[in-house]
C-alpha cells in the first residue's frame, strides 16, 4: 500500500479493510449492470457472496447494494465503465483482494449464462488492473 494512501484513509477515518470490501462490492455490482440490464440471477449471486463479507458500516448492506446498483447503472449509461473500475481498484490494495475482484466479476458476468461483448470487454479491462 502506498504510504500516502494509507494516511489519506486514516485522515478520512475510513477503515482500509471496509473500503476494500465496499470497492469489491461496487465492482461486483458493476458487472450486474455492465451488459445494460440488471438481471436478478446476477444480482442474487452478488447478494449471496456479499453475505460472506464482514460488513462494518453504518449503512446496511441492502441499502448499500440498492444505492450502488443505481450508480453502476449510471456508469454504464454514461460509458464510464473503465473509470469506475479504475477508481474502485485504486482502493483495493491487497493483491488477494484484487484477484478476488476479478473472480467475483467473472462469476457475476457468467451467472445468467450470457457472457456478452460488454461483459467481456469490462473483464479484460479489469484484468489489466489486477
TrEMBL record:
InterPro entries: TerB-like (IPR029024). SUPFAM superfamilies: TerB-like. It comes from the Bacteria. This is Co-chaperone DjlA N-terminal domain-containing protein. It comes from Pseudoalteromonas caenipelagi.
Amino acid at each position: 500500500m502506498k504510504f500516502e494512501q494509507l494516511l489519506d484513509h486514516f485522515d478520512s477515518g475510513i477503515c482500509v479493510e471496509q473500503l476494500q470490501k465496499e470497492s469489491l462490492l461496487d465492482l461486483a455490482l458493476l458487472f450486474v449492470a455492465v451488459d445494460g440490464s440488471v438481471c436478478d440471477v446476477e444480482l442474487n449471486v452478488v447478494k449471496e457472496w456479499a453475505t460472506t463479507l464482514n460488513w462494518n458500516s453504518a449503512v446496511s448492506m441492502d441499502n448499500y447494494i440498492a444505492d450502488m446498483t443505481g450508480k453502476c447503472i449510471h456508469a454504464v449509461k454514461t460509458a464510464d465503465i473503465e473509470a469506475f473500475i479504475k477508481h474502485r481498484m485504486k482502493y483495493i490494495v491487497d493483491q488477494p483482494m484484487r484477484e478476488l475482484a476479478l473472480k467475483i466479476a467473472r462469476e457475476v458476468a457468467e451467472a445468467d449464462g450470457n457472457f456478452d461483448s460488454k461483459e467481456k470487454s469490462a473483464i479484460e479491462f479489469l484484468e489489466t488492473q489486477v
